[in-house]
Amino acid sequence: MPDCIVFMDCSLSSIVCAHMALDESNDLEVHMVTDLFEVGMYGETPGIISESGWPFGGDHWLSRTGFNRPGEDDTAIRSSWLKKSMAISLANRGAHFHTGTHSTEIDSLGKEVTLSYPGGKTQTRIRFDHVVTTRLESDKVWRGAIVTSSPPSESISGRRPDGTYEMWWLGDETPENPLQLMDWVGNDPRTALNDALTLAISKLTNIKK
To answer: What is the side-by-side order of every strand in the sheet holding 180-185?
Structure first.
């Protein structure tokens, strides 16, 4: 396992991969980079629980507060809160989060990442043994909504622990009186959580080569 790993995004798959790597080596130095100013809480992605069910990863990957775990009758979770909870736990395990980056530069030969920030903040340079870059797995754009009543049975949807429902579809139509509207780029909302886990395993395999 490399001594220092830099993840160039804070996607769910990268956060999960970082937890997996720390499970194998507590002495690992982990850096998470994003242009966003906060990880999780905002920017919903599908949280539908697939047939493999819950839990999603190790319980120690989640912080003790800030996330509603699903009950027996729930078929979805709030993915942004899942990511936030996992990010808090990851920070508690010693990972360094670099948020609000304006631009990044990767020197593969010198094994150094340079981060710059808006507002004239001095640059940050990180020496790494391995860097994990962003992967775009799909260009399919899904629309989503949070609603209070159960969607039609044929829809791609799930019930969250707070009693609301999330639903996803392709096209321009919109359900009546949604609490929230969302857009997501990916292959299939029904497998999004499992796909993130599979991608995390793939990233870890490449790190260990």
So the answer is: 156-159, 165-169, 141-147, 180-185
Residue 180 burial class via C-beta count within 10 angstroms: exposed 0-12, middle 13-18, buried 19 and up: exposed
Q: Distances from the Cα of 94 to the Cαs of 24, 31, 32, 72, 85, in angstroms? A: 14, 9, 11, 33, 15
Here the tokens at position 119 are 């507002």
Mean pLDDT, range 38-56, rounded to an integer: 86
Question: How far is the C-alpha of 27 from the C-alpha of 3, rounded, in Å?
Answer: 8
Which CATH superfamily, name and number, covers 4-135+190-207? FAD/NAD(P)-binding domain (3.50.50.60)
Residue keyed to tokens 């539908």: 48
Which residues are registered as beta bridge partners of 157? 167
Q: CA 125 to CA 188: how far, in whole Å?
A: 37
- % of the chain residues with pLDDT over 70: 99
Q: Which among 80, 14, 79, 19 is positioned nearest to 50, based on CA atoms?
A: 79
Q: What is the pLDDT of residues 178-200, one digit of tens each?
A: 999 999 999 999 999 999 999 99
The C-alpha torsion from 97 through 100 and 103 to 108, rounded to 10°, is 10
148 pLDDT more than 90: yes
Q: Where are the domains of the chain?
A: 4-135+190-207, 141-186
